[in-house]
């Protein structure tokens, strides 16, 4: 009987040791951020196995796909004391093979996700290139200050309405839009932001700090519903449309 009991305990201990060793092996050898991988389960907790062709990285690597919103960790600071995740050419999405004009797109792309998905995944800054094109304001990844059929992605209002929908659904979030500005039509930016329903969220130029001073706190901007911060690359728009340069 003693021999049988001892044998049982040996088997039980061996089983527990095997489970512990497997767990230790798994955690010790989980791939870290930026290490090459073949599937999500290869990566450490909180990481996914993804590729990013836009930056030339065609080999899948372990990446963090859900950033932490900084104001959720430290509260009460001025807006400028936080770092906000921003995407370049946010509208230039790889799934776009055809222009909104019906032509094939020859312009390079930078993003895999839609603007809505970018915002849902923690992006809070969007870089948009805006042009006068076909009697409207378009998002183009172009050259020479002109938009062409083969560089025109879509009318800007579609992307701006995605931003409006996000702000409406998330009343404590703030989004910044950086405009590479080739719009020359009078009040062109103001009109398209008005049409997208974004004017009511715009942070006013008059409240922006001068000489490097601190911005209002995030809480203050949220309470006043001034949750869309706009910047343009065209200095004259400060005087003509009230958009910060």
From TrEMBL:
GO molecular function ontology, one term from the record = phosphoric diester hydrolase activity
Please give the InterPro entries that the UniProt record associates with this protein: PI-PLC_domain (IPR051057), PLC-like_Pdiesterase_TIM-brl (IPR017946)
**Residues annotated as signal peptide:** 1-30
- Gene Ontology biological-process annotations: lipid metabolic process
Q: Which UniProt keywords apply?
A: Signal
For this protein, the record's SUPFAM superfamilies field holds: PLC-like phosphodiesterases
User: Could you identify this protein by its name?
Assistant: Phosphatidylinositol diacylglycerol-lyase
